[in-house]
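Here is the promised in-class demo. Please do not try to memorize the tokens; focus on the logic of going from shape to residues.
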């Protein structure tokens, strides 16, 4: 099979649409892969320890060090953690075997569609990924739980 090269009117090689789309897809896939695997651990000092949970609303955040979506979401959880009525339990799952095991149990228990992070739980509700709509849903669930005393996520029972 011959390799075909396309050139422009000046005789220079140019990128074909197929090559461009393939490269774009690989780049996108590589970026998302950061949400599936990493090697470095980051300190999650803003999070509440499970034994210190005494607030009205518990938010559980499974995240991965090196996941760009998780990193974007981090400041949102730092802000939530500052609220007196919220306890954020953050579980880094790439570098902590105990957290990985807990996350696998959660994936199985809640029948999540995949093992990608970030995943957030408030009461018996959960969200996968990050968007303004997801953040709004999390805040709404926190407010509802604050008013109506939601159950603690089954993960802590």
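The designed amino acids, position by position:
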């Amino acid at each position: 099979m011959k390799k075909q090269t396309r050139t422009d009117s000046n005789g220079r090689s140019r990128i074909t649409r197929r090559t461009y789309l393939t490269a774009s897809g690989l780049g996108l896939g590589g970026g998302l892969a950061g949400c599936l695997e990493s090697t470095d651990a980051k300190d999650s000092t803003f999070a509440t320890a499970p034994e210190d949970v005494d607030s009205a609303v518990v938010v559980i955040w499974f995240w991965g060090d090196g996941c760009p979506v998780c990193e974007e979401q981090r400041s949102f959880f730092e802000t939530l953690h500052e609220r007196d009525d919220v306890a954020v339990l953050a579980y880094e799952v790439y570098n902590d075997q105990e957290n990985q095991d807990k996350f696998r149990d959660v994936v199985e228990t809640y029948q999540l569609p995949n093992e990608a992070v970030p995943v957030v739980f408030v009461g018996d509700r959960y969200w996968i990924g990050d968007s303004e709509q997801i953040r709004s849903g999390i805040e709404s669930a926190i407010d509802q739980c604050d008013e109506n005393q939601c159950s603690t996520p089954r993960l802590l029972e």
